[in-house]
Structure formats: structure tokens, C-alpha cells
Automatic annotation (TrEMBL):
Keywords: Membrane, Transmembrane, Transmembrane helix
Listed name of the protein: SoxR reducing system RseC family protein
UniProt keyword annotation of Transmembrane present: yes
Keyword Membrane: yes
Residue intervals passing through the bilayer: 70-90, 96-115
Domain of life assignment: Bacteria
């Protein structure tokens, strides 16, 4: 995925960019646009040194929706299933098995939050600035040349 954005803040090798929602975003539903919002600010890697006010192209080359779906949906279910198995073999009363299942489900969601924090810091996730679009290119694009 590649999007055009404007740099609104920089801090070392990290930039905050503003992405304007385009028509293709309506069908995707995979990004951070909140209901009714037409822009979103995103922190991106800025290895090429874009400055505040620059128009840039940002890219997320890896499509991590499958991994994200696995983490969000499957991990808590696996934890809950593990709770049921442990409860079945350890406890005589079903109520304790149910409580353990619910506790493990909550632990699964906590694990998802922890995984999210760890993976969001890794290089495999997130976006980065891949091109600074100079003002001459912008004017040429607006003039149709």
C-alpha cells in the first residue's frame, strides 16, 4: 500500500504524517480512519529525512492483515480453549472450568495487547517514508503536465 501524505512533525528518524482519506478507503476498512474523519495522523519511519511541510509518499510494503487477524481472533480463543482443557482435567465442578475459561480468554486478550506493543516497534510493521515529492512535481501534477 502506498499513500500520499504531508509531514506535520519530525523527531529524529520518526515523522508524523497526515494522510487524507481517498475513495478507495471506503471499501478497505483496514486502516485507522475513524468514523466520519477525513484525515488521520500516523507515525512513520523517516529514514530519508523528510521535513515538516514536505509532501511524501509513505508505504507499508508488508500486508500484515492476516497476522493481525490471527492475533486478534485466534489467540484469545486458543487461550480460552486451553482454559477449558485445564479446567476439565483439574476441577471437578464445571463452574470452575467456566471461570478458568473466562480468565484465560481475558489473558488471551492481554496477550494480544502485549504482542501489539512488541510488534508495532519491530521493522515488520508500520509505514515508512519512501519518497519526498518536491514542489515542482506537485505543480506539474496539478497542471496536468
Amino acid at each position: 500500500m502506498r499513500e500520499r501524505a504531508t509531514v506535520v512533525k519530525t523527531a529524529g528518524k520518526i515523522a508524523t504524517v497526515r494522510i487524507v482519506k481517498n475513495p478507495q478507503c471506503e471499501s478497505c476498512r483496514a486502516c485507522a480512519f475513524k468514523n466520519g474523519k477525513s484525515t488521520v495522523n500516523v507515525k512513520v519511519k523517516n529514514e530519508i529525512g523528510a521535513a515538516v511541510g514536505d509532501s511524501v509518499t509513505v508505504a507499508c510494503e508488508k500486508d500484515n492483515r492476516t497476522l493481525a487477524s490471527f492475533l486478534v481472533y485466534i489467540v484469545p480463543v486458543l487461550f480460552a480453549g486451553l482454559g477449558v482443557l485445564i479446567g476439565f482435567f483439574v476441577f471437578e465442578k464445571e463452574v470452575y472450568t467456566v471461570l478458568l475459561c473466562l480468565g484465560m480468554l481475558a489473558a488471551g486478550f492481554a496477550a494480544v495487547v502485549i504482542f501489539d506493543r512488541i510488534l508495532s516497534k519491530s521493522k515488520g510493521f508500520g509505514m515508512e517514508v519512501v519518497e519526498i515529492i518536491n514542489t515542482e512535481q506537485q505543480e506539474d501534477n496539478h497542471n496536468g503536465t
